[in-house]
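Design request, tokens follow.
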């Protein structure tokens, strides 16, 4: 992700310094708060190579500020612990050696207390940096902004990784106990049509964006329509009852290989109950009955694509999704709601309007994660953030119930490999108009 957000509106004044310091503290407090319900043991274990221990997330987000902000820009700064430079480097080859990702759960040392001490020391140094009298350069202000957005990404990862970890325990422990969340009925799905035409997509504002959202460019779209609501758990139950996981004609070849090899019969975290008559799902609130009214989550791209084909529709492209979302409020069920699970709509949506585009579940698109025309990676180690991952992955849009509300926008491009299921990923249907 680019160290130079497009047209950053940062103003180098004492007031802007205080504003950035306040935001820095708020983001850092939110991350620490997510770890509070967990034990030291919970924070150390790694449940699979794709997930990371909470302790590692706490340390890595701190490492980012120390490595890219404090070490090069704070005169006389001394590293808290030199070995952390390797232990908590994720994938920045330009910085140096890295501890292997699949072995992060083996890092019993440093302990959680030392990691929290690391956070406190770096926080103090960052606040001192923001409190100094001399002006911050635009480069430094942009780096800090990048670090805050980077930390918000890891806030979401903390919750998705913790959910997977707790699901592996036979005790089925809850991260927080708050169930049921809603008793609202499922909405009736409608469709909103869009005419063919030349459209523009990509970030177009003065606030922060990641480099993969740029440059803004033109795309031609044929006429299409997109569903007013995301696909629900109830919709997926119908797919299962109709043999969706047993019908190879619905699946891409690579997806069907996974279905057969891993014996998929339902979304991740689902398990049959009542002799196979019903289902329950593991959530951050523990194991609960599947609520048919809420948006489906924890689907791979392959499952989303197969469902769309079964429904006589398809996945939208990311350009279609962004055009449909243009001008729509980003308000929704985000991290701050505390639900930590998709919810049914809280109000009836007016006819012809799209609902739940933001929050609840990330929505798979049919677009592979590739560079926009004219995209260029930033120079230096921070330039490794996005560009080198533009291969073998698909784009998701809209954020989820564990995405911070101030972190999402219509042009935001999330991306995961097609087999990924542990994120809060679902789908919205689209159809061609001819």
């Amino acid at each position: 992700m680019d160290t130079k957000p497009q047209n950053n509106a940062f103003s180098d004044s004492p007031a802007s310094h205080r504003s950035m310091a306040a935001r820095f503290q708020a983001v850092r407090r939110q991350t620490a708060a997510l770890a509070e319900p967990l034990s030291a043991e919970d924070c150390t274990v790694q449940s699979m190579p794709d997930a990371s221990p909470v302790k590692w997330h706490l340390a890595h987000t701190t490492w980012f500020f120390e490595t890219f902000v404090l070490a090069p820009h704070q005169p006389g700064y001394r590293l808290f612990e030199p070995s952390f430079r390797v232990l908590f480097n994720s994938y920045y080859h330009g910085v140096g050696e890295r501890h292997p990702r699949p072995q992060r759960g083996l890092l019993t040392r440093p302990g959680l207390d030392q990691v929290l001490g690391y956070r406190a020391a770096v926080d103090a140094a960052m606040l001192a940096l923001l409190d100094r009298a001399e002006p911050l350069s635009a480069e430094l202000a942009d780096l800090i902004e990048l670090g805050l957005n980077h930390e918000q990404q890891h806030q979401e990862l903390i919750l998705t990784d913790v959910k997977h970890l707790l699901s592996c325990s036979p005790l089925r422990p809850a991260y927080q106990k708050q169930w049921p969340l809603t008793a609202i009925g499922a909405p009736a799905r409608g469709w909103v049509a869009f005419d063919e035409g030349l459209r523009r997509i990509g970030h177009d504002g003065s606030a922060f964006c990641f480099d993969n959202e740029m440059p803004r460019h033109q795309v031609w779209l044929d006429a299409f329509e997109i569903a007013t609501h995301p696909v629900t758990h109830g919709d997926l139950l119908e797919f299962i009852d109709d043999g969706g996981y047993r019908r190879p004609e619905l699946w891409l070849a690579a997806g069907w290989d996974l279905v057969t090899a891993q014996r998929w019969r339902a979304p991740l975290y689902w398990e049959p109950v009542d002799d196979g008559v019903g289902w329950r799902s593991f959530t951050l609130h523990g194991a609960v009955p599947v609520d048919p009214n809420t948006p489906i989550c924890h689907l791979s791209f392959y499952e989303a694509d197969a469902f769309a084909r079964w429904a006589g529709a398809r996945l939208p492209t990311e350009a279609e999704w962004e055009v449909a979302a243009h001008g729509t409020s980003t308000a929704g069920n985000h991290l701050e709601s505390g639900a930590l699970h998709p919810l049914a709509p809280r109000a009836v949506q007016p006819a012809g309007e799209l609902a739940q585009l933001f929050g609840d579940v990330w929505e798979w698109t049919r677009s592979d994660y590739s560079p926009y025309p004219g995209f260029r990676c930033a120079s230096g180690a921070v330039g490794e953030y996005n560009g080198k991952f533009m291969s073998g992955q698909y784009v998701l849009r809209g954020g989820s119930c564990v995405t911070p509300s101030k972190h999402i926008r219509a042009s935001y491009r999330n991306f995961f490999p097609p087999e990924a299921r542990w994120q809060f990923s679902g789908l919205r249907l689209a159809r061609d108009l001819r």
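Comment from the thread starter after seeing the answer: thanks! The radius of gyration is 22 Å.
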